[in-house]
Design brief:
By secondary structure, this protein is of the alpha/beta class. The chain is built from 5 helices and 5 strands; from the N terminus they run βαβαβαβαβα.
Length: 135
């Protein structure tokens, strides 16, 4: 498998950057090519993901905007008929919101206690499955 390309973005105006930057570095250490774009809104995230040809969009949030801006990323990808990008989200997300995010199309929802090896394994598995489905 080629090197997995991941775009990591902070959703909206969320100023909490440490977790996203730490995960970005850990994914890079795990052999993935990571593009960290900082604070962005859904339209810009989707446009950058398309331009960069990424396999994964990793969204990070601590500001409580996950239930509105997160699903908007999925919706914009669907509107552009892009089905080969895996979207995951992480941050301080209340457990009650996780089923809704998955129903909206998030492949996985990571909380601050998720071990990095679990994140890496799930991303690799999701990308492998998407590539197999589109082959």
């Amino acid at each position: 498998m080629d090197k997995i390309r991941v775009l990591v973005a902070k959703l909206g105006l969320d100023i909490h950057w440490r977790g996203a930057l730490s995960v970005a570095k850990l994914l890079r250490d795990a052999g993935m090519e990571v593009i960290y774009v900082g604070n962005q809104f859904p339209e810009a995230i989707v446009n950058m993901a398309i331009q960069e040809g990424v396999d994964v969009i990793g969204l990070s949030t601590l500001a409580g905007n996950h239930s509105t801006l997160g699903p908007k990323v999925i919706k914009l990808l669907q509107e552009k008929n892009i089905n080969d990008i895996t979207v995951v989200i992480g941050g301080v997300i209340p457990p009650v919101d996780i089923p809704g995010l998955k129903a909206a199309g998030m492949v996985e929802v990571f909380t601050p206690n998720t071990p990095i090896d679990t994140i890496v394994k799930l991303i690799k598995k999701a990308v492998r499955e998407k590539k197999a489905a589109s082959a």
